[in-house]
Amino acid sequence: MSVVVLDASAALAWCFDEERTPQTEALLRRVEAGGALVPSHWPVEVANALLVAERRQRLKAPAVDGLLELIASLPISLDGRAATNLSGSLLTLARERSLTVYDAAYVELAQRTDLPLATLDRAMARAARDIGVPLALEP
Fold first, then answer.
1. pLDDT band of 91, cuts 50, 70, 90
2. Which domains does the chain carry?
């Protein structure tokens, strides 16, 4: 049972001291206790962001490896349905709300599953609010 749809931006805040807040720490505890649901591209998005941080020397390689292990240990479930719905509501949502298809996948997943969205992305949060999706984290 998942308690939130978890955007990569929210999860990545756990990885950087300057981005960690009491809200993001509470979200981590919430995910640890109840799980999260994410679109199928989420692991690649998170891994890529951490690799970029490594290349920019914000993190060292062992830290990236450890963070990926920590994230992999969380009760996070992948939803593959958005990838099969590209010509339907996902693309429409991206067009109507000026989102990338990647970001629209989070909003669509939260709407479809009636779960709150945890994101630090303002555009994604605005789109979610506009269509009645509650937020689990305010950017």
1. confident
2. 4-132 (3.40.50.1010)
